Amino acid sequence: MAEVILENICKTYGNNFRAIDQLNLSVEDGEFLILVGPSGCGKSTALRMIAGLEDITSGSLRIGGVDVVDMPPKDRDIAMVFQSYALYPHMTVSENIAFSMRLAGKPKAERKKRVDEIAKTLQLTSLLDSKPANLSGGQRQRVAMGRAMVREPAAFLMDEPLSNLDAKLRVQMRAEITSLQKQLGVTTIYVTHDQIEAMTMGDRVAVLKGGVLQQVDTPKRLYESPVNAFVAGFIGSPSMNLFEATLMGDELMSGSFAIRLQDAAFVRRPGLRSYAGRKIVFGIRPEDLYDSSLESGRKYQTIPAKVTSIEELGSEHIVHLNIDAVRVDSGDPDAVDDFGLASNAVARFEPVSAVHSGSEIRLAVDDAKFHFFDPETHLAI
To answer: Would you put residue 329 in left (φ > 0), alpha (ψ -120 to 50) or beta?
Structure first.
């Protein structure tokens, strides 16, 4: 096991395109770190540089205290698990797992013992004589994991290993990989574009955009305290609602409604007062918007809204709304338009809500849960 330290890492291609710009990241010994971001943000490039599959233009990379910038991949003491599994189709499960040990000239008895141990851990014992073509996607992924584990590397690198699996199997494999990483205690860097994977698997999550590290923190802190509007919009599904408003005294004025901010909002964010009389961006997550008809026991402020469509998911309703406010783009190039032509907001309602498409409602807002951002820099206030 070892810590992985990246200092001022840059990757520039021949056309002067900078895929990674001054990346500084420290992955602790035994930590499970997730690299996440939209397509083209540089997360896979960063992983491939750590593996030695991409040259580093400038900067320092240390694994276990050793500078590996000029070291070939085979000498870096890392094991990589790919999206495609990369199994040898003519070999059995046992032969695939033992392949690196055979290349290293390990005795047959030692190879068998180690393969049996790993197969037991990964629940592959009954499949050791099978070929990859006869395995399910989840079983193939376990074999790929086993082939990485057999080397007992200083670090695991995983490049979107679950993206080829169906939704149900992905949920199962997320839990299995997380449990296995805790059991082994091996430093792991895991790349994904799926922020649900990021939030449920990692000890910490590093969010990239355009080759630049935006924020690295625990999933909880990323969710509760995003450093900018991009992170706020990227982390969470459905995305945080971001709107433009004007701060007049202690009121947010937007279109035809006003929301009075409590003193606590200014205590938590002393810089908020400096935006008096100016434009500001405020954000609120879908779960902090409510059907006011169900909130009689709580004194939330309300604003008018029109329901444009509803997704009934059983345990909750995803309600698409239109409110009199200007929607702000979070800057995520992969963002899917959750809202449609007639909508600019989305809320999570309890399934007992009786609202229906086309209805005019009063939308209850929990202003204690507001996030505030500078309208030009999009940095958190």
So the answer is: beta
Helix (H) or strand (E) holding 272: none
Do the beta carbons of residue 133 and residue 89 sit within 8 Å? Answer: yes
SS3 229: helix
* Residue length of the chain: 381
Amino acid at position 252, single letter: L
Per-residue pLDDT tens digits for 34-62:
999 998 999 999 999 999 999 999 999 99
Q: 85 in the Ramachandran plot: left (φ > 0), alpha (ψ -120 to 50) or beta? A: left
Give me the torsion for CA of 243, 247, 253, 255, rounded to 10°.
-50
Enumerate the β-bridge partners of residue 191. Answer: 35, 159
* Torsion angle, alpha carbons of 120, 123, 128, 129, to 10: 140
Return d(Cα 51, Cα 97) in angstroms, integer: 20
Amino acid identity of residue 370, one-letter, is F
Whole-angstrom distance, CA of residue 301 vs CA of residue 278: 22
189 in helix, strand or coil?
strand
Rounded CA separation 258/302 (Å): 9
In angstroms, the CA 373 to CA 228 distance is 7
pLDDT at res. 166: 83
107's tokens: 């005795």
The pLDDT assigned to 164 comes to 80
* pTM for the model: 0.88
* pLDDT less than 70: residues of the chain: 1, 296-297, 334-342
pLDDT at 172 (0 to 100): 85
Distance CA 21, CA 286 (A): 33
HSE-CB for 317 with a 13 A CA cutoff:
19
Q: Which residue has the tokens 């400096």?
A: 274
> For the chain, which domains are there?
4-233 (3.40.50.300), 239-373 (2.40.50.140)
For residue 252, give the H/E element and its range: strand 251-254
Q: Encode pLDDT of 269-295 as tens digits.
A: 999 999 999 999 999 999 999 999 887
For position 95, what pLDDT does the model report? Answer: 93
Whether the CB-CB separation of 381 and 341 falls below 8 Å is answered with no
